[in-house]
Amino acid sequence: MPPIPSGRGLSRRAAAVLTGLALAAGGVTALSPAATAAVTVGPAADFPVRVNQLGYLPDGPKRATVVSSATAPLAWQLRDSSGAQVASGATTVHGADQASGQSTHLVDFGGYTGTGSGFTLVVGGLASHPFDISASLYDGLRADSLNFFYQQRSGIPIDAALAGGSAYARPAGHLGVAPNKGDTGVPCQAGVCDYRLDVRGGWYDAGDQGKYVVNGGIATWELVNSFERARRSGGDAALGDSTLRVPERGNGVPDVLDEARWELEFLLRMQVPEGKPMAGMAFHKIHDAQWTALPTRPELDDQQRELHKPSTAATLNLAATAAQCARVYAPYDAAFAARCLDAARRAWTAAEANPNVLAPATDSTGGGAYEDADVSDEFYWAAAELLATTGESQYRDAVTSSPLHAKPADAFWWGGTATLGRITLATVPGVALPADDVARLRGLLTGAADGYLSTMGGQGYAVPLAPDGYVWGSNSSVANNAMVLGVAYELTGAARYRTGALETMDYLLGRNALDRSYVSGYGARAAENEHHRFWAHQNDASLPHPPAGSFAGGPNSGLQDPVAEARLAGCAPAACYVDDIGSYSTNEVAINWNASLAWLAAFAAERPAAPATPAVQVTPAAVTVPEGGSATVAVRLSAAPAQDVTVTVTRTSGDTDLSATTTSLLFTPANWATAQQVSISAAQDADTLAGSAVFTVTGPGVQPATFTATEADDDSAPPAASCTVAYKVDSSWGNGFTATVTVKNTGTAAVSGWTLGWSFDGDQRITNAWNATATQTGSTVTAQDAGWNGPLAPGASASFGFQATYSGTNPPPTRFTTNGTTCT
Prior knowledge:
six-stranded mixed sheet; single chain; 15 helices; globular; alpha+beta
């Protein structure tokens, strides 16, 4: 891939390909306001009815764009595969769309709830491409967008059975077998180091065969974060073991984590060894000394491979992804998690000692420079990941002292990673920040999401990207912004954010200025000639097209390659794309871009059961009440009730000293989302017990919720034990919750490892845990350290989290033991 500023892209072949460059700006003749009986399907450039060419979810938005200069609404019909009309209506005139230069109308057929395949949308006698309406619409894309990473693997033979056919099979590339000159013993560039390093494995970055830590870092984070999000939502089984086409399937580890580990192992190998200059830093990249020809099969590359000077940015990418690794992989491989945490700590220390080793823009011979002159965002991201994993004060101080901690959530990319840290701090349960600080971070993310929705609402194609945002890798920017919409949906449950994320998929899959799906193999007019050295069928018929699920970089108004310059002069920003292997500035593939697509596809494919009735939501789920005083919790509903409903607050078990002074609340279809305060008081007494009580909030036609109140006793306390345990419910919904448990060594001697025990008082059942191995027999729970967090010096603490189910009430455990000793 030729030198680039800040982006990259990917894509693949469609089942039915209609060749030819689509409309560049908007010269579509006005459609007649009157519907006609005849339906015309024209050539590729004549599909003014723009739809998601894959289709729509039954419970998702269903909108399309019609290119037309008509000033009056147009009649539309939705037809099934037999041609029968199943819905109809009139378009809404939007008018000029700045990014595309087209005059547009909008069609909303979301009222249709049927399912099937082969639907078409007809406007003015012209039909759209056929599409499906199905709950399983995105299942295939979820798998294929992740299989892209298997096929980008370096250092392993690619198996035809896993890659989708013999055309995609190939021997291992860059495994020290001639004519390869890497990657088992790679020298540094002259003057950088005097030793060789084994940096085999990892993913080829894009259309070239270089491997870059900064781009590998964000791509890995997105894949692992996708699993973290799915685990919190209860949808992680879809990314679990034996769900993907990877050689590790069947090993008991979620397949998406197996795939991410292939890159993580490479990132760990890129760390400067102990005893060497700049130990703990990470080499910035490794690639050929000169640009390789197009095409070049990986196993036939005969160029010398070189390690490039370590950089602070690469080192912090390693620190961040390795810290995330330690947190997420602990339940599956404690030894690997410990390796990751050790590498993350060493990388952080090395980056602090070398804060200004910046990658230059001039280092662009043979591979992309991936230059970065400001690494404050990488410092913030790495500190956030280390804090979420360890809870240690040094990382908390680094987070809270960063100027980025208080700034709005900006768009993220490989050179701007602060919002990755914000997402982690806002979503990982039990992060060691004050509750109001976490709430503020969540507000920053939902505020950014609202901004994207506002941008989409003013456009003819509903893209979370401003008209001046069509730069190199614009599709990556679109997908990243949609990820923020997905995060906002997780944080709030507000349907508008899910709608925005799904409409972004519509844009990527064909509802756009070019009537083009940017994802290979998905849609009637899908990209199939992305810039790649092995998937280069356009240049060599013996080689394959890019595999299904590859994601093209997308429109780039900068026209930064000869093909784009020659073929796209005068294009509107959103139309500056050509499906040609030579257009590396609009049509390349890249691991960070496919990672965003994979995250979105997994989000879109998730099918959580919608609650039949609104659920009561209580924040926080556990509250401390000073003896003789009061505290409040906030209560709201998850959705609008069908009619006014009165919910009551009652103590259902526990200490009678605790009582609700607010006993009922009224919610209406208009105020259901507005939190109302409930006051809990604790009577003054003479005992020394810090009692607790469970309160239930319920009413007709709503799902109840519980919360726990604990009295902060101000009387004389008994002598302290040698350990303390804090148990906190982080979130609670109709029949499930997540909690964080923190054990602290209050004794005078170090603890080499810990085993925590307790019994539930209800029917709680742990389904998974992180940062500890938890087992449950009946109501009795045993949690053992994950290895890396076992040793506890006097005064030190360790935290772990778990997700569990329950019915009825959810009282907290009242007694904990650590290594057999009762804790306070």
